[in-house]
Amino acid sequence: MTKSISVLGSTGSIGTQTLDVARMHGIRVTALTANHNVELIEKQAREFEPKMVAVLDMGAAAQLKIALSDTPVEVFCGEEGILRAAAEENCDTVVNSIVGVAGLLPTLAAIKAHKNIALANKETLVAGGSIVMKAVKDEGVKLYPVDSEHSAIFQCLQGCPENSLSKIILTASGGSFFGKTRKELSNVSVKQALKHPNWSMGAKITIDSATMMNKGLEIIEASWLFDCKDEDIDVLIHRESIIHSMIQLKDNAVIAQLGVPDMRIPIQYALTYPERLPSPTPQLDLTELSSLTFYKPDYDTFSCLSVCRDALRRGGLYPTVANAANEVAVDMFLKEKIKFLDIGDIVGNAVAEFSDNRKDITLADILNTDSETRKRVKEKY
């Protein structure tokens, strides 16, 4: 079980819920990071007394340094500060809940510093799966999934014989627009897209859920975590978000992990594995549920799913392109510069226009491709 953690992205949804778990189980917090939320990270620093905090925004870091001047907490800034927190010498596990591909370098820094990883940043494996999984193996550290779906698969696999897995079944809530047609989605607002039926999450992942891009990214993430191919991963729409994912074994037995839609369950399992401890989450009462429903996803309306499957099959740098294009497109949608359906079109066009068949990719390849893709998308749209 984890004794001490560094929390990257501590002021976000996953970060604050991680601190709920740490508070309940007395897990020491040695480092915290944020983008610019000075008020909240100051409050967290005063409660948990980490050795250091880091804020990406330099102005916010200067404010925080003044605010914490009466404490022994060291304050760092910029990307260098985030990487320092990822490699903080007194922690044994790094919880990476940074949003987007910005989480890749901190993950690698933590692995290099021989820290176990509790990964809530799926883009790390989408863009850099090959180098991250190699680094995990080379450095002999553990990588535990925090995404509810991948945690569910990890839990279902406990006790299963090696090579008994036949299929992974990822469940999806369907997001804000389940059952809608492209015509009905042509003029939806940002406010409508941010209204998720079950989960309380940050803006970016909520939009990804609405476009189903989140599930596409999870398909790619699952392929790296569980060493499986695209054709071995199914997706089911499950509106109730009670079954968090399932596995099908070679004898056609299906095992599911159930629970209330609360991220503190997978967060805690990543931090306390293999222990099962009391949780701050409410118990699941199956008698309160009238039914559990399942539907096939609409790959035509929610084209991001198809694009991600295509990127996974192509391999190499194609998932990096899909992720980078999506991050830019989501940002533009949130700023009301494009329409909702434009997100899927932008991601699809970026992957279709990319041409690079190399399979042995480096970190420099990934970072360059990410940067170039962002530049092209911004110039084109």
Can you summarize the main beta sheet?
Answer: 7 strands, parallel
User: Helix content range of the residues, please?
Assistant: 40-55%
What average pLDDT do the residues reach? 96
**Spatial order of strands in the largest sheet:** 4-3-2-1-5-6-7
* Tally of alpha and pi helices: 15
| Cα Rg | 20 Å
Can you put this structure into words, describing what you see?
- The protein is α/β, with parallel strands linked by helices.
- It has 15 helices and eleven strands.
- It has helices spanning 13-25, 38-48, 58-67, 78-86, 104-112, 123-139, 148-157, 190-193, 203-211, 213-225, 264-272, 304-314, 318-334, 340-353, 363-380, and strands spanning 4-8, 28-34, 52-55, 74-77, 93-96, 116-119, 143-145, 165-172, 233-237, 243-249, 254-258.
- It has a seven-stranded parallel sheet with strand order 4-3-2-1-5-6-7, with helices on both faces. The chain has a four-stranded mixed sheet with strand order 9-8-10-11, with helices on one face.
- β1 (4-8), α1 (13-25) and β2 form a beta-alpha-beta unit.
- α6 (123-139) packs across α13 (318-334), α10 (213-225) packs parallel to α12 (304-314) and α12 (304-314) packs antiparallel against α13 (318-334).
- It is globular and about 55 Å long.
- The chain starts with a strand and ends with a helix.
